């Protein structure tokens, strides 16, 4: 049997860390060292390497998940480093079909929302408001799209604007549809966020006549976070991928919410 190379061990550790972040949102050096059997200094080095590649964000004593690609030199780069890319592309494609020429829409921050933005650049006379610097950057030079950015302080992990300026902006905006990603979905608890202060996210989704939540099937197995954005019943439509379990589909529908599932591309 061929021995594993150093690089293969490194890639396995990298995947373990990404899986942990996907489930928990944030992890510490100590718990990762315990799980992998490696020293804390080795884990710190791995965290730094993954931070440099845009796979996570270093914090004091640990790391949090990064929810957007950090290198957007051209549109093809938006696919680099996105976790569960196939699932999120299904969602972006399905959600894009609900956006039509002449719509007024809001798009939130996050990798799924960014992929959605990449799917609507051919729409005519489209107006987009966003709290996301990456989304704004991607749509900036499309003259068929009128673009508004809320302003405020920028959150490093996903490039989202937040704070009083952002909240004030969305309180004065009215759009047809809002499209928002999320960190966790629980049919009983609702939509929750990893971020400590999600008031800008709440303001964005509530400025629309219709609210679309973009959540891949793995978000249903993530333990709900403390910060709640919405009750399930406040959603118009939940957009997910083809692997979402039937039990979740039925429970969401029982709340009077539409469910739109993508298809493998």
Automatic annotation (TrEMBL):
Q: Which PROSITE patterns match?
A: HTH_DEOR_2 (PS51000)
User: Which one of the record's GO molecular function terms can you name?
Assistant: DNA-binding transcription factor activity
Give the matching Pfam families: DeoRC, HTH_DeoR
Q: Where is the HTH deoR-type domain?
A: 10-65
| Presence of keyword Ligase | no
Origin superkingdom: Bacteria
Q: Which UniProt keywords apply?
A: Transcription, Transcription regulation
Q: What is this protein called?
A: DeoR/GlpR transcriptional regulator
Name the species this protein comes from: Dorea formicigenerans
């Amino acid at each position: 049997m061929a021995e594993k190379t150093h690089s293969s061990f490194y890639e396995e550790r990298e995947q373990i860390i990404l899986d942990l972040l996907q489930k928990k949102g944030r992890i510490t050096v100590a718990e990762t060292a315990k799980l992998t059997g490696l020293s804390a200094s080795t884990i710190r080095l791995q965290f730094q390497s993954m931070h440099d590649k845009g796979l996570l964000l270093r914090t004091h004593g640990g790391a949090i998940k990064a929810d957007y690609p950090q290198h957007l030199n051209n549109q093809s780069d938006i696919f680099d480093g996105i976790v569960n890319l196939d699932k999120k592309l299904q969602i972006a494609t399905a959600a894009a079909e609900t956006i039509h020429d002449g719509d007024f829409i809001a798009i939130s921050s996050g990798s799924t929302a960014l992929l959605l933005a990449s799917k609507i650049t051919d729409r005519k006379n489209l107006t987009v408001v966003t709290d996301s610097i990456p989304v704004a950057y991607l749509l900036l030079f499309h003259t068929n799209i009128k673009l508004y950015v809320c302003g405020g302080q920028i959150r490093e992990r996903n490039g989202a604007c937040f704070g009083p300026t952002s909240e004030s902006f969305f309180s004065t905006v009215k759009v047809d549809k809002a499209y928002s990603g999320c960190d966790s979905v629980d049919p009983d608890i609702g939509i929750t966020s990893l971020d400590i202060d999600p008031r800008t996210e709440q303001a964005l989704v509530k400025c629309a006549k219709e609210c679309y939540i973009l959540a891949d099937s793995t978000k249903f197995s993530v333990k709900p976070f403390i910060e709640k954005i919405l009750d399930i019943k406040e959603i118009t439509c939940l957009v997910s991928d083809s692997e979402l379990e039937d039990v979740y589909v039925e429970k969401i529908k029982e709340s009077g919410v539409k469910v739109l599932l993508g298809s493998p591309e």
